[in-house]
Design brief:
The complex is a heterodimer. Chain A is of the alpha/beta class. Chain A contains 11 helices and 22 strands. Chain A folds into 3 domains: 53 residues, Alpha-Beta Plaits; 180 residues, HUPs (Rossmann fold, 3-Layer(aba) Sandwich); 120 residues, TPP-binding domain (Rossmann fold). In chain A, a hairpin with a 2-residue loop joins strand 2 and strand 3. A 7-stranded parallel beta sheet of chain A has the order 11-15-10-5-8-9-16, with helices on both faces. In chain A, strands 19-18-20-21-22 form a 5-stranded parallel beta sheet. A 3-stranded antiparallel beta sheet of chain A has the order 12-13-14. Chain B is globular and about 70 Å long. Chain B has a 9-stranded mixed beta sheet. Chain B folds into 2 domains: 214 residues, 3-Layer(aba) Sandwich (Rossmann fold); 35 residues, no CATH class. In chain B, a hairpin with a 6-residue loop joins strand 3 and strand 4. In chain B, helix 2 packs across helix 5. The two termini of chain B are 42 Å apart. By secondary structure, chain B is an alpha/beta fold. The chains are: A alpha/beta, B alpha/beta. The structure holds flavin-adenine dinucleotide and adenosine monophosphate. Flavin-adenine dinucleotide sits at the interface of chains A and B.
């Protein structure tokens, strides 16, 4: 609950300015808090007169939950990179609080299960069954939540893949606990709580979030946000679990699965060549495709380029498309509207090619070329070919 | 087929501005709009209704003016709408939101299918759908691209995961989300807008949907925001003009310095 002490308040209005949610307005020289207040405490902090008080109900402390658990997502028996990345982060967190790092993995014929130890896991909990070969959200969430209730980890981290995004909220709801999506930062604070930082409101602000009274503290993290450790000989215990037959009963039947051959999803791509309205025509994307091929990357597009039918909706980057975080993002004929930027701004390196030197994309590009993309790209491709030939 | 479509009102993205000094979202005068990702579930629901008959019920939780979002849905062809609005729901995180929606759905009666968007442009979590399905104890399938068939309490769907598609048969009732590109959402017509005026549109409070207070709003939200700050801004980089040979050489050198392998790989 948030209360304003009208005696102490002098009506300076500092609190109105500091509220990022816009939940405070002034009436009769006193602040009024609207219903959408999130109790973040920014206003109480800024008030020099201590006129704002936030009371939070003290709930009983949760103490008997220990350890950090990572979801070991596999596909066709191959463990995903994001699992090693989470193990890297998990290892650091685990060491800082002196708790074990665990990994739970569901599947059939998972080949490199021992690699999980090399990248940091103290314990590997393996559920093996043919019914676990492909992802079935019902079955996976049943087994995992059951397992969590038994071993009681304090933290549970999941890669924000298509599978993780569906599994996470399902498990969280079963356990009646919180889940923070797409965290970019994870730290344990002095009270031993996991502080989860994520972009909010389309990346305009960052929010730090905690889950004080329920366990486990759950978060999803996008691929490539965390860094994996160097592989090292480490003792990791493998536990083989028997799958309880009741838990693999499901109202979902997997009739078939088709792998997309060779094609790399933009979420996982290291290098992306992206085209916008400036590409001007569908055939223009053939040129981008050539550049992508030369750079060994994949193509993506802005929304208007997708809407024009030049590119597949699956490869749209931005607020109403996908958020990508490649090593290199080459923006061709893209103006850099905020709705596009939120989808690519966290790329390691941004290169922009645009003929308008005032295009906002140049405000965030590490390297910008003011030129017509139809002049520039063919030359760029030729130069890339030449410089490769020299190696 | 009776379908419940969960629509959320989000700030119109064209207009979201932040005060560069304070990072505060400037909300004055900003209109709400239907979450762009919810357009695809709405369209898919309309197509199912055209094919199999039945009823489309819209459900939204939010402030009173979120009613405009429901009007939009009614104008394109949904049959009725309910807005969950109560100060008790204020400050809900995804679990508390799903709880409120689940209470409403339980009071609304029988349904075959629930649809949620893959994510919202403001909350941007994509969690409400699966949260909700779990609270209702029904199966969920995210990222559906096509509904292949509907027969005797089963639907067959194709859904996309990054590197593959799955064909699933699911027992109804169930919850699905639909990806962008699965369909092209229609626009409301003038006729539709006039018809919408005559359709049932009701505001419900927490009491009317039997929501227990301690599971609602801030109290029912396990997560809590403790700090808000501005993200680090990217620095402006090098900008070169024209296609001269030396510019290209500089770019390639730059990429090499940044350790970008031009033989990069796709992992
Ligand atoms: C709710 C909502 C959601 C949205 N979601 C997204 C989203 O997810 N993704 C997204 O991208 N957008 C999104 N948008 C749209 C966004 O606001 C912009 O309209 C869009 O990003 C602009 O796309 P663009 O840069 O390709 O086109 P433009 O803004 O038209 O820019 C084209 C650029 O190409 C340059 N150019 C033209 N010809 C050439 C040439 N021959 N060589 C080099 N440069 C050239 C021009 O100088 C210009 O800067 C959304 C908008 C709304 C309202
Ligand atoms: N307040 C709400 N009212 C109705 N539906 C919602 C609400 N919040 C989320 N949803 C639904 O859940 C989907 C995912 O939202 P989110 O988890 O917030 O990204 C949305 O596309 C909606 O279909």
């Amino acid at each position: 609950m948030i209360t304003i002490d009208r005696e102490k308040c002098i009506g300076c209005g500092e609190c109105v300015d500091v509220c990022v949610f816009g939940s405070i307005s002034m009436k009769d020289n006193h602040p009024i808090i609207s219903d959408d207040c999130r109790l973040c405490g920014s206003c109480a902090k800024v008030c020099q007169y201590n006129a704002i008080e936030i009371k939070r109900e003290k709930k009983k402390k949760v103490t008997d939950w220990r350890g950090i658990l990572i979801f070991g997502e596999q596909r066709d028996g191959v463990i995903l990179e994001v699992v090693y990345e989470l193990l890297g982060k998990g290892r650091k967190l685990a060491d800082s609080i002196n708790e074990p790092l665990l990994c739970v993995i569901l599947g059939k014929f998972v080949a490199e299960i021992n690699k999980l130890a090399l990248y940091g896991a103290d314990e590997i909990h393996y559920f093996e069954d043919v019914k676990l070969e492909s992802f079935n959200c019902e079955i996976y969430s049943n087994i995992i939540s059951n397992f969590i209730k038994k071993i009681k980890p304090s933290i549970f981290l999941i890669g924000a893949t298509s599978i993780g995004r569906e599994l996470g909220p399902r498990v969280a709801a079963k356990l009646k606990t919180g889940l923070t999506a797409d965290c970019t930062g994870l730290e344990v604070n002095k009270e031993g709580l996991l502080v989860q930082t994520r972009p909010a409101f389309g990346g305009n602000i960052m929010a730090s979030i905690i889950c004080p009274n329920s366990r486990p503290q759950m978060a999803t993290v996008r691929p490539k946000v965390m860094k994996k450790l160097e592989a090292k000989e480490r003792e990791g215990k493998l536990f083989n679990h028997v799958v309880n037959s009741e838990l693999i009963d499901s109202s979902i039947k997997i009739l078939g699965e088709i792998k997309f051959n060779g094609q790399c999803d933009i979420n996982n791509a290291e290098i992306i060549v992206s085209g916008g309205l400036g590409v001007g025509k569908k055939e223009g994307f053939d040129l981008l495709e050539k550049l992508a091929l030369e750079l060994n990357g994949v193509i993506a597009a802005s929304r208007p380029a997708v809407d024009a039918g030049w590119a597949d909706p699956n490869i749209q980057v931005g607020m109403s498309g996908k958020v990508v975080q490649p090593h290199l993002y080459v923006a061709c004929g893209i103006s850099g509207a905020v709705q596009h930027r939120v989808g690519m701004e966290t790329s390691d390196v941004i290169v922009a090619i645009n003929k308008d030197e005032r295009a906002p994309i140049f405000d965030i590009a590490d390297f910008g070329i003011v030129a017509d993309l139809y002049d520039f790209i063919p030359k760029f491709i030729q130069n890339l070919k030449n410089s490769k030939a020299q190696i | 087929m009776n379908i419940i479509v969960c629509l959320k009102q989000v700030p119109d993205a064209d207009e979201v501005k932040t005060d560069p000094e304070t990072g505060r979202i400037v909300r004055e005068g900003i209109k709400g709009t239907v979450n762009p990702f919810d357009m695809f579930i709405l369209e898919e629901a309309l197509r199912l209704k055209e094919q199999f008959g039945g009823k489309i019920t819209l459900l939204s939780m939010g402030p009173k003016d979120a009613i405009h979002t429901l009007y939009y849905g009614l104008a394109v062809g949904a049959d009725e709408g309910y807005l969950l609005s109560d100060s008790k729901f204020a400050g809900s995180d995804t679990l508390a939101t799903s709880y409120a929606l689940s209470c409403a759905i339980k009071t609304l009666g029988l349904y075959d299918l629930i649809m949620c968007g893959i994510k919202t442009t403001d909350g941007d979590t994509g969690q409400v759908g699966a949260n909700l399905a779990e609270l209702l104890d029904i199966p969920s399938v995210y990222y559906v691209n096509r509904i292949l068939s509907y027969q005797n309490d089963f639907i067959k769907v194709e859904r996309f995961l990054e590197d593959r598609s799955q064909i699933l048969e699911v027992h109804l009732p169930c919850l699905i989300s639909i990806i962008k590109g699965a369909n092209v959402p229609r626009m409301p017509t003038l006729e539709g807008k006039i018809e919408a005026e005559g359709k049932q549109l009701k505001i419900l409070n927490a009491f009317e949907v039997n929501a227990i207070e301690k599971y609602c709003g801030i109290e029912g939200s396990p997560t809590r925001v403790i700090e808000i700050f501005l993200p680090e801004k990217r620095k402006k980089g090098v900008i070169l003009k024209g296609c001269r040979e030396q510019n290209i050489t500089k770019l390639i050198q730059f990429l090499k310095n940044k350790k970008i392998s031009i033989f990069g790989m796709c992992s």
